[in-house]
Amino acid sequence: MNPTNPLSFRAKLLLAMMLIVLTITGATVYIAENNLRANQQRLLNGQFQNQLRSFLAVQDLRSSAVAEKCRDVSRSVRLRAALEEKDVDDLYRNALTELQGVFNPNEPAANDAQLSVRASFFRFVDVDGAVLPAGDHPAGNVDPRSLDHALLPSKASLSSRSDAEMIQPRYAKLS
Predict the structure, then answer these.
(1) What percent of the chain shows pLDDT beyond 90?
(2) What's the rounded Cα separation, in Å, for the pair 20 and 28?
(3) CA angle 123, 70, 90 (to 5 degrees)
(4) Which residues, including other chains, have CB under 8 Å from residue 98's CB and lie 6 or more apart?
(5) What is the DSSP string of 73-96?
(6) 59 or 15: which leads in pLDDT
(7) How far apart are CA 117 and CA 7, in angstroms?
């Protein structure tokens, strides 16, 4: 053996082929992993978008059902009479009767598994946008600060409305 050339030609060729195969295999695994990760991310994003659209559609459906029930309640002759007489006690008593299908103070609000729309609370506001207190009537528990925050846009819009528009129902989502 030659001391300056410890490896034979065959050993050098074998080592070079092993390095080439190792490099190509590593690059192929790296590219395949990146493709897999990108495909999984695309599928996950698509699934998320579909679930978000579903959630928003259900939320819109429930919101429209609540708005429709509010419109029905706003047409109630008894509630309009109580509003005109400024009888808050009679207003909430009649509202409990009108909202029997949507609000029951003895049951918690509906969860997502139920198909029916259930309200967790209700309140009335006067012409100035101030919340009329429910008094002893079971109109649901709500944090007054979050209620005031949710009603701020309604308060601002009440000042520019006519009397006919005042009786239109409004509902606010609490955050």
Answers:
(1) 29
(2) 12
(3) 50
(4) 72, 73, 76, 78, 79
(5) HHT-HHHHHHHHHT-HHHHHHHHH
(6) 15
(7) 82
Beta bridge partners of 124: 132
66 contacts 119 by C-beta, under 8 angstroms: yes
Query: Global pTM?
Result: 0.51
Work out the number of other CB atoms within 10 angstroms of the CB of residue 62: 16
Q: What is the DSSP string of 96-165?
A: HHHTTTT--TTSPPP-TT--S---S---EE-TTSPEEP-TTS------HHHHHHHHHHHHHHHTT--HHH
Helix/strand/coil (H/E/C) assignment for every residue in 11-41: HHHHHHHHHHHHHHHHHHHHHHHHHHHHHHH
Token reading at 106: 């003895």
Alpha carbon distances (Å) from 125 to 120, 130, 136, 154, 167: 17, 5, 17, 9, 10
Domain positions in the chain are 9-61, 76-163
**Cα atoms in the 13 Å half-sphere on the side-chain side of 122:** 27
pLDDT in tens, 140-169: 777 767 776 776 666 666 555 554 444 555
